[in-house]
Amino acid sequence: MAERSTENTTGTPQRKSAASRSDTVPKKAKGSAPESGKVTLLSGGNPQIPKGDGDAPVQAYIKAMPEWKQDIGRRLDAIIVATVPGVRKAVKWNTPFYGKSEGWFLSFHCFTKYIKVTFFRGTSLKPIPQGTSKHPEVRYLDIRKGELDEAQFRDWVRQASQLPGEKL
């Protein structure tokens, strides 16, 4: 426990534990939600959402996406759900993930000027998404305002969902 030095009446230093000090303020638990219930936006406007499995955390993430990104987030989610019946959803590392029982095939994340979609086996998709990664099989799709090609995205989702999933 943290201690600080104090002096008693004889002038000799004494140790006082942090638990016994009246000026100690309890710290908020790391990763806990803000008390107001308001979602914090991280750098680039990415929502800070507690990790969780299922549709509810993903919908909370999408609802907290800023401005035009929220509309695209809704469209991405709707396309994925329509293309992959029974898709598995979760939020990990402040990012929605989509997968099947054997692993994850896609995630997306907000940045200041675009949404980055990650295809974990992207080099196996036809055509291959343009965004490269330091991970050999991963490819990215950067979606800016008004640039979502729904037909191409739907086709990539269909292909990606049929590939072996990534275990994270």
UniProtKB/TrEMBL annotation:
Residues 69-160 form the YdhG-like domain. Coiled coil: none annotated. Signal peptide: none annotated. Residues 1-55 are annotated as: Disordered. It comes from the Bacteria. It holds the Pfam family DUF1801. Residues 7-23 have a biased composition (Polar residues). Transmembrane segments: none annotated. One of its GO terms (molecular function) is kinase activity. Keywords: Kinase, Transferase. SUPFAM superfamilies: YdhG-like (SSF159888). InterPro entries: YdhG-like (IPR014922). This is Histidine kinase. It comes from Advenella kashmirensis W13003.
